[in-house]
Amino acid sequence: MSFDYYPIISIYSTALAVITAVLLDALLGEPKRWHPLVGFGWMANKIEHALNRNMWPCLARLAGLSAWLLLLLPFTAVSYLAQHTPFAWLADVTLLYLAIGAQSLSQHALQVHAPLSEGDLPQARHAISMIVSRDTSQLNETEIATATVESVLENGNDAIFGAILWFVLFGGAGAVLFRLANTLDAMWGYRTPRFLYFGWAAARLDDILNLIPARLTALSYALCGHTQSALKCWMAQSSTWYSPNAGPVMSAGAGALQVQLGGNAVYHGTTKQRPTLGMGASANTQHILSATKLVKRSIALWCLVIIAVSILMHIKGSLTLA
């Protein structure tokens, strides 16, 4: 049997890159200063204010698509070029590390959990306002816990698993494309008068990029929690949610935790009638911790699956060369 180290290194490099990036995020968290996403958000705001003018719907949609391309194509192209340098592997690890935010997500959730556990609703409302777009000024304890669990579950897909999947498929450029597209959706993807047409492209393109990751995330939550409940809620409830990708993620996550999520919430001064997701008791502080643990178990599952696939590819390659 012939044996060549270079194909082996190539096969395992993606798995090693994912594990390294995940470990860096766990050890270092997000950069405290000069995070690229902060600078990207600043640029996005500038371009949006310049291009989002009062215009016909079709022109507003075209302007939004142009802004999306103007912001994403240069960064994705640079990331792609970085994959064809002698430092390609280090570039890929760095880009994935910057694209995922597992540690930050957990920290934000714990910053809500701490004051909520002590009955400090004003501080808990302030903490949750940092990670959700709904009006938090009048939320009670259950509503704060519900919003936090929802944010953890949904951002598990948006800030972690989606970036990892696109990285596995296309390297650092894939992770950058996904994360920046998701950031623009978070900034522009609202059905408000300002963004109804301008943000249309950002919202629809994010839906496309999230189509597969969201369902793999939902499956991960099901496998890492109460599986039967998660699958039951996913099948019965996901289609009732207003987002085609958040529906599977949140319904499966709620079922996996055996908690009720959803319910009415105020966004931009308007009350949105949201269906109930999940089953069991209403959300409380303990469910916040359970949600962060569910995401961490799912990360471990993804790493194990990626390693297993790499091993199978190695075995297949070795048999082919035999």
From TrEMBL:
Pathway annotation from the record: Cofactor biosynthesis; adenosylcobalamin biosynthesis
Gene Ontology annotations of biological process type: cobalamin biosynthetic process
GO MF, one example: ABC-type vitamin B12 transporter activity
Top-level taxon in the UniProt lineage: Bacteria
TM region(s), chain numbering: 6-28, 62-82, 159-181, 299-315
Main subcellular localisation: membrane
One Gene Ontology cellular component: plasma membrane
One Pfam family this sequence matches: CobD_Cbib
Protein name listed in UniProt: Cobalamin biosynthesis protein CobD
